[in-house]
Give the backbone structure.
Amino acid sequence: TQLLEQSPQFLSIQEGENLTVYCNSSSVFSSLQWYRQEPGEGPVLLVTVVTGGEVKKLKRLTFQFGDARKDSSLHITAAQPGDTGLYLCAGVKVWTGANNLFFGTGTRLTVIP
Amino acid sequence: EAGVVQSPRYKIIEKKQPVAFWCNPISGHNTLYWYLQNLGQGPELLIRYENEEAVDDSQLPKDRFSAERLKGVDSTLKIQPAELGDSAVYLCASSTGGPTDTQYFGPGTRLTVL
């Protein structure tokens, strides 16, 4: 059972379009991370948001953490084929002295040239 | 700097057979994680090690799964006997530890149980 639900589960768009991926939970997290995973590889960290309401930008990607620290969104502007991949959000809870990650259900993005 | 190394990358076995996965974390990383990732889903934690000690194994199905990290570096995850539902990707990750660190993932081992 995964604490975080992502939507949409699948997204196929044309190059140049904008998109938003949502990550929702009823749990509060100390921070939230977004990863991208390519086929045959492990997830790679894109960003960590820590403060409720925080917005971070990474080139064409904008990440926002909800005010209550229960949800997050990822917005991609002018999507490129290189953005294709599985996007995973992960809520972070700290116990026993380490980050414990609770991954979302994933959003598989395909950007068509 | 070398990343997290896992082997084998792919494994196909028949049900009821044993199987083992190996992980070599990034040098100097004391914390090691094993995750299970079903197709199209996010990873789920199986076990976390701090050096040689398994500090969180609450999600490890102990009737058939076992793990060890004898010298606090490499780790192995074993399934005996494997079941059809064990088909998944098994990911290893490592970090320096502490509440603000970053986990680095290996490429995973894709297990298919026939």
